[in-house]
Amino acid sequence: MDLGLTGRIAVVTGASKGIGLAACRALVAEGATVIAGSRTGSAALDELVAGGSVTSVLVDLGEPEGPARLIEFSDDLGGLDILVNNVGAASLRLTGFLQITDEQWASTMALNFMSALRATRAAIPRMIARGGGNVVTIGSVNAFLPDPGVIDYSAAKAAIWNLSKSLSKEFGAQNLRFNSISPGPVETALWLGEHGVAQTVATNTGVDFETAKAQVVASQGGFSTGRFTTPSQVADLVILLASNRAGNVTGADFLIDGGLVKTL
């Protein structure tokens, strides 16, 4: 299926690994030119850059000016058609709500919510100038499946969902679409890495990694499919929503969680 993304200009945040890297690969495969923002880059991203369709920009998206600086790189390419707000991180709060400081709350909101808000704010005028555009924001199942262990992350992702819906109403008449994706557990460093959710639980509870991994998933309801979502599966949904194949889809959120959420 041709998604009609050839020649489109896209910005992806948190692009060095996981869902962001997969989104870059998927966009390039569809013929888009990608500006990939990340704090440190990666060897895998460098491989994409070598192919000629990706520009890697090192930027701290948690800083107030970072997102706008990243978006500005699209000016050199003639404009902006697609923004994928992906950057984010979760810290387990195993000591409870009362122990989370204002600074920790601010840090979580800066990276998981304000980075997307700021990037979107910088992107909208450029998309209007191009006659339209698409913003796809990676949220989380925790937006509507709150978890005390990631209470600040859950709140930030709920805010992302609300922001996307609100913007779809304000800018729909200007041919801008805003949609979000809510993944459940994904095969990324956030979940399965050395300092990810599963390993953190294992370290703090004295069980092995595989036991902790199973316990974390079970505590949220378990997968109907029996498996984690892959970054490429999320990326496939990203490029569909960014294309005119989904031309009348806006203000929507798409759950991809292997059946983790059991309610309607």
How would you characterize this protein structure?
One of its GO terms (molecular function) is oxidoreductase activity. Belongs to the short-chain dehydrogenases/reductases (SDR) family. InterPro entries: NAD(P)-bd_dom_sf, Sc_DH/Rdtase_CS, SDR, SDR_fam. The chain has 264 residues and is α/β, with parallel strands linked by helices. It has a single domain, classed as NAD(P)-binding Rossmann-like Domain (Rossmann fold). 42% of the residues lie in helices and 14% in strands. The chain has helices at residues 18-29, 43-50, 66-72, 102-129, 151-171, 189-192, 197-205, 209-219, 231-241, and strands spanning 9-13, 33-38, 54-58, 82-85, 133-138, 176-183, 253-256. It has a 7-stranded parallel beta sheet, sandwiched between helices. Helix 1 (18-29) packs across helix 9 and helix 4 (102-129) runs parallel beside helix 5 (151-171). The longest helix has 28 residues, at 102-129. The chain is globular and about 55 Å long.
Question: What keyword list fits this structure?
Answer:
Rossmann fold; 264 residues; alpha/beta; seven-stranded parallel β-sheet; 9 helices; 7 strands
What structural class do you assign from the helix and strand content? alpha/beta
Biggest sheet layout: 7 strands, parallel
Uncertain spans, ≥5 residues at pLDDT below 50?
none
Round the mean pLDDT to the nearest integer and report it: 95
CATH topology: Rossmann fold
> For the terminal residues, how far apart are their CA atoms?
30 Å
CATH class (first level) name: Alpha Beta
CATH superfamily: NAD(P)-binding Rossmann-like Domain
Q: What's the tally of helices? A: 9
Keywords: Oxidoreductase
Protein name: SDR family NAD(P)-dependent oxidoreductase
InterPro entries: NAD(P)-bd_dom_sf, Sc_DH/Rdtase_CS, SDR, SDR_fam
Organism: Cryobacterium adonitolivorans
